[in-house]
Write a structure and sequence with these properties.
With 76 residues, the protein is mainly alpha-helical. It has a domain of 51 residues: 2-Layer Sandwich (Erythroid Transcription Factor GATA-1, Chain A). It contains two helices and two strands. It has a two-stranded antiparallel ribbon with strand order 1-2. A hairpin with a 6-residue loop joins β1 and β2. The longest helix has 34 residues. It is rod-shaped and about 75 Å long. It binds zinc ion. The site of zinc ion has 8 residues, from loops. Zinc ion binds next to loops.
């Protein structure tokens, strides 16, 4: 049985796609970490956007008086 060869998504090198390759479809742990890091940071940006919008809407509904912060500073 021959394991199929796949191109490492990070560096394009051909690597074995088999249980023997712990980093498949990557060629090495380093390539896997590099790709995962890029993917994770990209996803983090996308995921962080909607909550920010929701908080903004909540603030507008609550109508928190903006003079709370200045008052706190004056008390100092
Ligand atoms: Zn690679």
């Amino acid at each position: 049985m021959t394991a199929p060869l796949v191109e490492c998504p990070a560096c394009g090198r051909r690597t074995e796609f088999s249980p023997r390759n712990a980093w498949r479809p990557f060629c090495s742990q380093r390539c896997k970490m590099v790709d995962f890091g890029a993917w994770a940071s990209e996803r983090y940006v996308v995921a962080a956007d909607p909550p920010e919008d929701g908080q903004d809407g909540q603030n507008a509904q609550t109508g928190d008086p903006p003079d709370v912060a200045p008052e706190d500073q004056r008390a100092r």
